[in-house]
Design goal:
The protein has four helices and four strands, in the order αββααββα. By secondary structure, it is an alpha+beta fold.
Length: 167
Amino acid sequence: MARNRSNPFRPAPTFWPWLALAAIIVLADQFTKVLILGYYQLGDSTRVTSFFNIVRVHNPGAAFSFLADAGGWQRWLFTGIGVAAAIFIVWMLRAHPSPRLFCLALACILGGAVGNVIDRALHGYVVDFLDFHYGGWHFPSFNIADSAITLGAVGLILDELLRVKRS
């Protein structure tokens, strides 16, 4: 076990807890998608509140259905981007395992990216099921993986703002 240089009795930070968090996100994402695929047909919807529904939507594109009608090649493009991002994030977590907000953000993005890559590899599309709406306007449906990616992106922005403020 590596030792912390400033305190030899305290272990050096490691990236394993961050990978564990990413794995938990992947498991939660895939579990909820298995439930949706098992209990809902494509297009089914259940009203939960006046502003939220559970739905089953297939998104062959990226965020906000970007390139959803591109003919199928986008499946492999987005899968490749997700795999490349996951490899880069694991490398970043190994190189910099101690800044907590930074690593938390990367772990969220990693878990979300892997969750959506699994969908693309298995189904050719991403399963979305969270539908927020107001007055007839619906935000594009999303899932746990998308939520984790969004939280991770917000965390990275906040981490950078705090870093700039400190320096």
